[in-house]
Amino acid sequence: MRMSADLRDLFLYEVFLYYNPLFLVALMIWLWGVNLWVFAQSSVNYVKVFDLAQTHLSHREIWRCATWLTLIVPTSMTAYLYLYSHGEVSLAASQPV
C-alpha cells in the first residue's frame, strides 16, 4: 500500500519537526568538542579562562558523547519512518523522541 503524496509530505514534515531539534543538539555537541580541540591545539588555557573544575570533559569525551547521540538519533528516526510507513503507528509513537 502506497501513501498519497499529501500524506507523505505531511508525514515527512512531522518527522522533520520531531527530529530536527535532536540533530541540532548533536551538531552543537560536535561543535563544542571542536571548540575545545581548537583551544587545546592553540595552547589556550581554557580551564583557567573559564574557571572550570579540574574534572572537566575533554574534547575526546565530548566527541564520544556526540558520536553516541549521532548514532542514536538517526536510528530512532529510521525506526520511526519504517514503523509509521508500514502502518504500525502505535509502535512508531513509542519511539523515544
UniProtKB/TrEMBL annotation:
The keyword Nucleus does not apply. Its main location: membrane. The chain crosses the membrane at residues 16-40, 61-83. It comes from the Eukaryota. Residues 15-82 form the EXS domain. GO terms for cellular component: cytoplasm; membrane. The keyword Transmembrane helix applies. It is found in: Membrane. InterPro entries: EXS_C. Keywords: Membrane, Transmembrane, Transmembrane helix. It is a multi-pass membrane protein. PANTHER family: PROTEIN ERD1 HOMOLOG 2, XENOTROPIC AND POLYTROPIC RETROVIRUS RECEPTOR 1-RELATED. This is EXS domain-containing protein. It comes from Aegilops tauschii subsp. strangulata.
